[in-house]
Write a structure and sequence with these properties.
237 residues, alpha/beta, 2 domains, six-stranded mixed beta sheet, four-stranded antiparallel beta sheet, 10 helices, 10 strands
Length: 237
């Protein structure tokens, strides 16, 4: 695709002697929501950490906005605008909401910190109400808001959301997917990495399904919903 923002080819990675990713290819275009789907243990989080340079690559290439970032340091990856909101939120529990948000602009967009804070508070009014509260005392849903808000503070060009609905109530999951749609409507490219197949396919333009560290299916959301194997394995129909 001519407007490709993220291009991953033949990506291999793992832990010690264990290879988890087995030659993964994946693309995300500018302004697109792409879902990376799969069950727990499929290799999705390993993919995110490898693309974000938190895990070393054993083979393959990663290009972002036409630039080869295969061997880049994770700070360079963030500085380029590829920002990862990790599974489990990974907020700093002993820091305030404000301090957590400010850390999101440590590497990128520091000059726009004040304006971006106001943007995050407009998206998440609850964070503004709790600006001085220690992050570790917040509810799970509020911590997820904080994690996403911290990612937005860096003015991402591509936001990787790793299992954002994990542990949230059904109502909060609905709110979360609505938020992701609104961010996309503002032009943000999103790689949505989820076990929640049905709701992810509702908002994503395209999707990849990962099993055992390899991509098994990919296509538009409509094409995947029409795939019998996918519907039987993940949707129970």
């Amino acid at each position: 695709m001519s407007d490709t923002l993220l291009s991953v080819r033949g990506l291999r990675s793992g832990y010690g002697a264990v290879e988890v990713l087995r030659g993964v290819d994946l693309d995300v275009a500018a302004g697109e929501i792409v879902a990376l789907l799969g069950s727990n243990g499929a290799g999705k989080s390993t993919f995110n950490q490898t693309v974000s340079a938190l895990l070393p690559k054993r083979a393959g290439s990663v290009r972002f906005d036409g630039r080869d970032i295969t061997r880049a340091h994770y700070r360079e990856v963030v500085a380029a605008g590829l920002i990862h909101v990790p599974e489990g939120r990974r907020i700093f529990p002993n820091l305030s909401v404000l301090e957590n948000l400010e850390l999101g602009s440590f590497t990128r967009a520091r000059a726009n910190r004040a304006a971006n804070l106001e943007r995050v508070f407009a998206i998440f009014p609850r964070l503004k109400e709790r600006v001085t509260q220690l992050a570790g005392t917040m509810s799970g849903g509020e911590q997820q808001m904080l994690a996403i808000g911290r990612g937005l503070m860096g003015e991402p060009r591509l936001l990787i959301l790793d299992e954002p609905s994990l542990g949230l109530s059904p109502l909060l999951v609905e709110e979360l997917f609505g938020l992701i749609s609104r961010l996309h409507a503002q032009g943000l490219a999103i790689l949505l990495v989820e076990q929640n197949v049905a709701q992810s396919l509702e908002i994503a333009q395209r999707a990849y399904v990962m099993e055992n560290g390899a991509i098994q299916f990919y296509g538009t959301s409509a094409e995947l919903l029409a795939t019998d194997r996918l519907r039987q394995a993940y949707l129970g129909v």
